[in-house]
Write a structure and sequence with these properties.
Blueprint: E1 9-15, E2 19-26, H1 32-37, E3 43-53, E4 56-70, E5 76-79, E6 97-106, E7 109-118, H2 124-130, E8 135-145, E9 152-161, E10 167-173
Antiparallel strand pairs: 1-2, 1-5, 2-3, 3-4, 5-9, 6-7, 6-10, 7-8, 8-9
C-alpha cells in the first residue's frame, strides 16, 4: 500500500515487537527525528492508522482514524527520506562525518545499514549512553524480523530506539560521507 504525504503530514511506519503501525504524522513544527527525540512528549499522535502483525505484514488487522503511540515501546521507525530525521542539534567536526557498515540486534529484529558519526573515531559506549537523543539514524537500512527473515522492511533512514539495542556492531572504516 502506497500512501503519499499531504500538507504537513507524512506517512511513517513504526515497529514494535509484534506490530507494524503505519500512519500520518504531523511534521509541520518538528521533523520525525526531533519528535522522537523530544523528551517532553511521551506519545506521538497518528492519523489514518493501519496496523499489521510482524508475522504477516501484508494483512491489515485494524484501521483507526486516530491513535496515540508510545515512543518508549517503539523499536524503530522508517523515515520517508533522510531529511525526515535531521535533528535540531547538529554535530560538526573538523574531520567531517565518518561512515561505517552497521548491524544491530533488537528484540524481534535485526537491522543492517550505514551509521554516520562526526569525528575521526567513535566511542560507541559514550555515543549510546551520553549523546542526547533517544533514537539514532541508520541510513539505507533494512530491518528483518528474526522469526521471519524473509520479511524485510527497508528505508532511506531507520530511526532506532537506543534503549532497544541489544547488540550494535560496526564494520571497518569507509570513505568519509
Amino acid at each position: 500500500m502506497v500512501r503519499r504525504s499531504v500538507a504537513g503530514l507524512t506517512v511513517v511506519d513504526f515497529f514494535t515487537r509484534g506490530y507494524r503501525i503505519s500512519g500520518y504524522l504531523d511534521v509541520r513544527s518538528q521533523n520525525l527525528g526531533d519528535l522522537l527525540n523530544d523528551r517532553l512528549r511521551t506519545y506521538l499522535e497518528l492519523v489514518n492508522v493501519y496496523i499489521s502483525r510482524i508475522s504477516n505484514p501484508g494483512e491489515i488487522v485494524a484501521t483507526y482514524p486516530r491513535a496515540e503511540l508510545s515512543k518508549d515501546r517503539l523499536l524503530f521507525a522508517v523515515a520517508p527520506t533522510e531529511e525526515g530525521f535531521v535533528q535540531a542539534g547538529r554535530t560538526t567536526s573538523y574531520f567531517g562525518k565518518q561512515s561505517r557498515h552497521a548491524w544491530l540486534a533488537l528484540p524481534s529484529f535485526e537491522i543492517e545499514g550505514e551509521f554516520r558519526f562526526a569525528g575521526r573515531t567513535l566511542d560507541m559506549e559514550s555515543y549510546l549512553t551520553r549523546e542526547p537523543g533517544t533514537h539514532i539514524p541508520i541510513l539505507n537500512a533494512t530491518a528483518r524480523a528474526t522469526a521471519w527473515p524473509d520479511f524485510g522492511f527497508s528505508g532511506e533512514v531507520l530511526l532506532v530506539n537506543k534503549q532497544s539495542i541489544e547488540l550494535f556492531c560496526l564494520g571497518e572504516d569507509q570513505e568519509p560521507a
